[in-house]
DNA sequence: TATGCTTTTGAAAATCATTTTCATTTAGTC
DNA sequence: GACTAAATGAAAATGATTTTCAAAAGCATA
């Protein structure tokens, strides 16, 4: 599936008339090798460790492209750092965020999703995206 | 009810051992006279127009106190500006945010609230707060 | 009311994540 | 290989927020 994601991104880039660059390939490889909600700085450090030449601005720019291509989703929690997570086609989830240990637990709730659609409908509102974050303490931290 | 809110804040301040200052009184009066989701900068400008001497840092500091006291709620949307709204005792709502005109529509959904509690329970998670924001286009902007 | 101690304030500087600038390098085309 | 526009990296700029610090003000006490 990593190969498919690379292909998908390359199609997106081609359709957008973007050039294919060594930097983007490397950043994509490394992003795809990570798991869960990585911050730009964290990814930048990972990238830099194997490719010291790649600049921070390029990582910022490239992650934005990933999000635009549908490969990644931008997550803004309450710590002032933008994070990115992998998008799995056809799937969606929201987050429980532990303010004790910064753990992030993912959950899906079809009923909540549908209720949101109802609410939007009721207000004549067209949904582009939504964010549902529950902040508190995970089972470990609440002890 | 404005008087009650002032009293409530004064009790909070007293309990915290804070001194009563002209600046905080003025900022509280002006905050209570506003409606809906005001940004710190907006409130600062309002304050400055009648009280040019009051500094921005004081407005930042004071709004944080209001939130801490339970009088105000901090709202972080996706535009990089912190906003504050009035807290009505015993009430809670979430937001539909129009990315076209920046309008914010409030809604309440008891079922969604309860489902969140279920989810938390299922994960052994203790909820401190949550945010549910639906982004998209309001009925005016979608045309 | 004056004194002394401590908090609060305002202005300016600092912070920090992110974006922009711009000179240089590079990819894609001929 | 040469040309042209896009992409890059380093550094500067940005912008919201926080911190610093000297001066001002609140509050307890004499
Ligand atoms: Mn996730
Ligand atoms: Mn609201
Ligand atoms: Zn935890
Ligand atoms: Zn609108």
Describe the structure.
A three-stranded antiparallel sheet of chain A has the order 1-3-2. Chain A has a three-stranded mixed sheet with strand order 5-4-6, with helices on one face. In chain A, a hairpin with a 5-residue loop joins strand 4 and strand 5. Helix content of chain A is 45%, strand content 23%. Chain A is globular, with a radius of gyration of 17 Å. Chain A folds into two domains: 85 residues, Orthogonal Bundle (Arc Repressor Mutant, subunit A); 49 residues, Dna Ligase, domain 1 (2-Layer Sandwich), CATH 3.30.1490. The termini of chain A are far apart. Chain A has five helices and six strands, in the order H-H-E-H-H-E-E-E-E-H-E. Chain A is of the alpha+beta class. In chain A, helix 2 crosses helix 4. Chains A and B meet through helix 5 and strand 6 of A and helix 5 and strand 6 of B. The site of one manganese (II) ion has 5 residues of chain A, from loops. Chain A binds a DNA duplex (30 and 30 nucleotides) through helix 2 and helix 4.
